[in-house]
Amino acid sequence: MTFRSLFFESNSDGARSASSLARGTSFALALLALSAVFFASFYVLQYQWNWSSIFRYKAKFIQGWLATLGISFVSLLFSFLVGALSTLCYRSRFLPLKYLSSLYVELIRGTPLLVQIFIFFYVVADAAGIQNRYLIGIAIMALFSGAYISEIFRAGIEGVGRSQLLSAKAIGFSEYQTFRYVIAPQALRSSLPALAGQTANLIKDSSLLSIIAISEFTLNAQEVNAITYSSFESFIPLALGYLVLTLPIMRLARILEKRLRFDT
Amino acid sequence: MRYGDQCALDDFSLSIDSVRCLALIGPSGGGKSTTLRLLAGLEKPTSGSIEINGMDIGQSEPERLAYRQRIGVVFQAYNLFPHFDALTNVALPLEKVHGYSRSESITKAEAMLDRFQLSDHRFKRPAELSGGQNQRVAIARALAPDPDIIFLDEPTSALDPEMTVEVLDAIERLIDAKKDLVIATHQMGFAKRAADRIAIIADGKLIETGPAAQIIENPQTPRARKFLGACLKF
Hints:
The structure holds 2 protein chains of 2 kinds.
Chain A: H1 3-7, H2 20-45, H3 51-55, H4 58-90, H5 95-110, H6 113-128, H7 133-158, H8 162-170, H9 175-205, H10 217-228, H11 231-259
Chain B: E1 2-3, E2 6-7, E3 21-25, H1 32-39, E4 51-52, E5 55-56, H2 61-68, E6 71-74, H3 86-96, H4 102-115, H5 131-143, E7 149-153, H6 161-176, E8 180-184, H7 188-194, E9 197-202, E10 205-211, H8 212-217, H9 222-231
Parallel strand pairs in B: 3-8, 3-9, 6-7, 7-8
Antiparallel strand pairs in B: 1-2, 4-5, 9-10
Helix pairs in contact in B: 3-4, 3-5, 4-5, 5-6
């Protein structure tokens, strides 16, 4: 085991590879380095760690985490529906629908989520008389994420090669058949990595819902912090809780990217 | 035939009777592909009309769609859908466009692939097939619904010499099987040997047309002579 093989990827035939031992060792080293920086800062601050106090409130953390999970999951489903609908409208030949979709996407993507939460909560939901904050939160996240997903779908559809459309035309496919058998399968596959990324974003962005007192993960952590005055001990588990949700998704995205590649 | 400011085909009038195989030859960018696409109903002429076997192929898109369902087209490349295997590529149009049941279309597709010696490759995706195999699957797909005419747009231009022969052999067998064919090609030898008539298209115009051997050996117009002279130089 040479120094080189332990710490460097080998580059044979243009394909990079490294042994598991090498990967494991280097990952541990990188983690150690980052942790060292982290703990050194705390040492300098002479911070008194107080883990026991927040452990008493572990139920709040768990409840909050579950609430975030639930809100994210339901919002995700609706955002896919909204996004798909928006993309279909955008591609419609009926101009009012096309502009409706285009306006929706541009407004949502062009404004901060925080602003959207305020406008939706204090203006729209109030006017419509909706009381349930969880419903409002889900609606906000669904509309927000829907716009980004709409763009992802649109890019996926437009990314299907022009020659494919000509080929479909040549074999006598109608427009609907072309969409159903040629465009949609390929658009979906090429969109998957971006969709996975957007899912992770939705989970993280849902933390902003804490601003309107929806009892999700971030708000609960803030409340524990307020009770115990132990900010780092509250927020580090918070970060870890989100990582537990987002890391698997990003991993899945990477696997899907590899699996669904077919060279044209 | 105009695309915006550009005129791809100008003042084009071609009239042919009793032809089995028509070859379109000419320099790249000269209008061969545009002509072929117009004949295949894939594009709408800016002005004028197209009649095949005494019938107008259609002024409106639905009419042209109906026409396209009775013909077969093979392009230079990227014919097949990359997310389906060879068998599905051939069977899907049979099922969805021509109304065969799923099992019937699969049987027909398998028979067609077998005819082109591609049975062993039927579950492979286009990315796993060679260029020549891809083109032969494309020909099988075009042939499967028993079309009235088959149009081929430079089917061998993207292939190396060995694969070119493979594909040209397949095309020749189509002609022998009494299929009507219109082929745009750079393969002069093939055009001379397999086609009945040749039309030379260059600079957006029809330069010359006549029986195959005669056109190649004895071109009449200076433009035709220039083109064929260049072809035969190497």
